[in-house]
C-alpha cells in the first residue's frame, strides 16, 4: 500500500477562490502527464523539480479546468515521494472532477492523514513532529500555534532523543560489563547510576510539570462565571462574546443550565462557562443547574466571581467566596452604573480571595478592557504562564513520560536494595522504549493508524 500513488483534495470541501488536489507516489508525475496539457506540450517528467506549469486538466478530450501544476520530485517533497499539486478553481464540483480524473488514470483515494503518515514512514519527520502538524491545524490561539510550530521544528524530538542517548549509554555499559567483566568494571557503578537517574528524573519532572500548562495552550483556559442569581453573570458572558448569547432579564434565576462559549482575548482562548446562580433553591430544575455549576467550578482554570456592587454582600456571596478559595479568581464588581448602596470597603475584604478586583458594568461595557488585561497578564506572567521553554501539549506524550518516570523509579529502588546490575538494565531499557513511542522509534501499527486517522484526507 505504501507504494501506491495517492490523491486527495487538500483544501476545504467548500466553494472558494482556489482548490488544491494533491498526489504523492512513484507514479504521481506519470499520472499527471496523462491528464495535464500545457500549451508547450512539455512532459512534466522532463521538468525541473519545484516548478509550476500552466495548462489544462483533460479527461480524454474534455477540458476539466484551467490549472497551475506544481511538481516536486523525490526526495525533496513533504512525503519524500514524487508529489504533484494541482491548483484549480475552488468549486467543489470541479475539485471532485479533477480528483476523479487522476484516480481514473491510476491514483487511489488517500486515507486520512496518509500524506503525513508517509512523511513519517519515509523518515522526513518523526511521530512527535507528525502530531504537531494536526496541532498546528487545530490551534485555537497564538500560543498554541507557537508551541506546535516549535514541536514541528523538532524541539521535543531533540529533547527526547538526547535523554534516550543517556539511558541507552548506561544500558549498554551494564550489558558490556556483565558480558565482559575483564574489560568493564561495575565497582562503584551503582553510585554513578543513581546520580544519573536523579538527573533524569528531574528532567522528566520538569517536562511533566508543563503538561497542565500545555493543556491550557491547546484547549484554552476553562473559565467559569459564578455568582448568586441576578448579579449579571449572563451579561458578563454576552459582553465577552460580543453578542446576546445568554438571555438576560431582571428575573432572578433566568439561567438554569450551562452555557459555554469560546472567546479569543488578544490571542488567548477562553472556554467561558456561564452557570446558574448558586443559591439554596427548592426548584428541581434550578437545583440541577446549581449542582452543575458546582461541578464545573471544581475543574476551572479561572473563576470570574461576579458580585452586584449596587447591593451589600449577602450570606450567599460569602458562601460562594468560600467555595472558590484557593483557585485562580478575578472578582468582578458588576452594575457599577447603578447607585452604589454598599461601601467599597465591604468588597475589599475579598482581597484575601484574589489580588484582582475589577469594577465593571457589563451593561455599559465599562471595565471590560481592564478585565482583559488582567487575564492576559495572568496567562503570561502569573498563575498561568507561557514562555519559550518546551511545553508538553499531548496527552500521549504525558502518559509516556509518566511511564518512563515509573521505570526510573524502579531502577532507583533496585540500586537502593543492592539488586544485581541486570535488574537496572531491564527497567532502563523499558524507559528507553517508552520514550521511543513519543518520537515513533518503537510504536505499534495500531497506534500509528489511530494518530493519523485524526487528520483530514488531504494532509
Helix content: 40-55%
Elements, N to C (H/E): EEHEEEEHEHHHHHHEHEEHEHEHEHHHH
Strand order of the largest sheet: 3-4-5-6-2-1-7
**Full CATH superfamily name of the largest domain:** P-loop containing nucleotide triphosphate hydrolases
Number of domains: 3
According to CATH, what is the class of the largest domain? Alpha Beta
Keywords for this entry:
flat, GTPase activity, hydrolase, 3 domains, single chain, Rossmann fold, G_TrmE, six-stranded mixed beta sheet, Four Helix Bundle (Hemerythrin (Met), subunit A), alpha/beta, 16 helices, about 450 residues, Gyrase A, domain 2
Task: Offer a quick outline of the entry.
It is found in: Cytoplasm. With 459 residues, the chain is an alpha/beta fold. The chain is 45% helix and 18% strand.
Would you mind describing this structure in some detail?
This protein has 459 residues and is of the alpha/beta class. It has 3 domains: 6-125, Probable tRNA modification gtpase trme, domain 1 (Gyrase A, domain 2); 130-215 and 391-454, tRNA modification GTPase MnmE domain 2 (Four Helix Bundle (Hemerythrin (Met), subunit A), Up-down Bundle), CATH 1.20.120.430; 221-380, Rossmann fold. It has helices spanning 28-35, 92-104, 114-121, 127-138, 142-152, 155-179, 189-209, 211-219, 233-241, 284-298, 315-323, 344-348, 368-381, 395-416, 421-439, 445-452, and strands at residues 6-9, 16-24, 36-38, 51-59, 62-72, 83-90, 108-109, 221-226, 259-265, 268-274, 302-308, 329-334, 357-359. The chain has a 7-stranded mixed sheet. Strand 12 (329-334), helix 12 (344-348) and strand 13 (357-359) form a beta-alpha-beta unit. The chain starts with 5 loop residues before the first strand and ends in a 7-residue tail after the last helix. Residues 220-380 form the TrmE-type G domain.
